[in-house]
Batch of 2 targets.
Target 1
Amino acid sequence: MTGRATPTRNVDDPLPSWSALVNVYQSVLHDVVAALDEQAGMESGVFSALAYLERAQPPHRLPMGELQRSMYPRYSQPGFSRLVQRMEADALVERRPDPTDRRATIVVSTRAGRKQFRAANAVYVATLRTAFGRHLRVDDHARLTAILTTVSGRRAGKS
């Protein structure tokens, strides 16, 4: 025995917790998508792409392939390419050659893209507070975050 505790895993019936998670996610997502469209004038796919660029390290830029993988399965490769083309036509992003790999392209958010993202993000956060956040106490949020972070970490390690 190593002395380490082995996590208890009851996978006999994951359906109730999974269904509850999906039901909440879908209903909140519906509210968020509608708010982004109506209040920020931004398609949710554009918002998601700009959010990934905002969180990137270094900020505001990602290799196109990495951004596309982040957006999959929502966007196929051709659908993602069309999304980036629309965003480029709207001056929200620019495509630049990757200085370390001539075959690759970097997607970079523009100043206008970052400004529109900040405005849309305020709508996003306000909608999350109303559609999701207000239904839980602070300690509920902390517990839910810990549980979902554990699942995410275990999936990443595939344990």
Note: Helices lie at 15-40, 44-55, 64-71, 77-89, 111-131, 138-157.
Target 2
Amino acid sequence: MAKPPRRRLRPEARRLEIVEAAERLLQVHGSRVRVEDVVREAGVAKGTFFLYFPTWDDLLDTVRQRLVSEFDTAHPLPTEVDGPVDWPSVIEAQAGAFIDFASARQGIGQALFHSDFAERRTMADNAILRLSAIIRAGQEAGAFGPVDPEPTARLLFAAIDEAPRAVAGGEDRAAILAALQTLLRRTLAP
């Protein structure tokens, strides 16, 4: 049986095809995905893969950046341009959004944020930077107490990051979210 003729794509489109194939496979199979799986899914040669991604970690880094950008775009932080912001509600909404976002992406999240890749290729922790910014803005508005934003954000994120795994493990989402909101309120109370 003859193979169908190869489609000619612009380099950006071919690269995106590889990235999207990796995303689909990582979501289903997590860290078990390999280059061979991605090239088969994308319908490209192994050499084409390495033309765009010199290493496997380069591809994973690209996928991780896309995931972070997807969350940031879907859940932008408010500004006080249009009036006062309810910072306690903002941080609770961000935590809930993260739980839902990460719960829907367990396989890919495990491969990108909780694997040996994540240890090899650390990144500026966007979630902690985001939480720190919310805490500082809430403090400036008088909505949060005098905590040190960076270490507090790191510890709060540890709880937020555990929540999707608890939900995936069968815990009640509403109960987890309620406990998390209580933790956030008590920690950041003025």
Note: The chain has a mean pLDDT of 92.
